[in-house]
Amino acid sequence: MSMLNSILLEGFVSIGPTKSDNGGCSFCVKTTQTWGDEEPEVTITSQLPVEAFGKLAKECLTVLHVGTGVRVVGSLTSSIETVFIHAEHIEVKRISRPSQRKSY
To answer: For an engineered disulfide with 84, which of 6, 20, 44, 49 has Cβ 3.0 to 4.6 Å away?
Structure first.
């Protein structure tokens, strides 16, 4: 049996990027899901920690700030204290037109 550990997350930066002790950076992405055909609709908001490393971390520290729209592709990783997303690719969604999005 092959195993897959992959995640795609879209939302807004809710806690700005900070430099980590391990040479990377960490930030949080807030997502909101709404569903239901009847009133009231069900809404769930989640805030998920993301860590980036290397060149990606340097770009995040430069470009990201609270409120920036992002799409994060990565994998779920755990440490003793928490579960977080290890980012492999981040797309900044500052402008709603797809042709003007910037990827790292």
So the answer is: 49
Q: Give domain limits for the chain.
A: 7-103
Decide if pLDDT at 101 tops 70: no
State the DSSP code for 67: T
> pTM of the entire structure?
0.81
- pLDDT tens-digit readout, 34-62: 887 777 788 899 999 999 999 999 999 99
What is the biggest distance separating any 2 CA atoms in the chain, rounded to whole angstroms? 48
The mean pLDDT value of the chain amounts to 88
Task: Kindly indicate whether the domain formed by 7-103 is annotated with CATH number 1.10.3210.10.
Answer: no
Of 5, 2, 1, give the one whose Cα is nearest residue 77. Answer: 5
Are 64 and 92 within 8 A, CB to CB?
A: yes
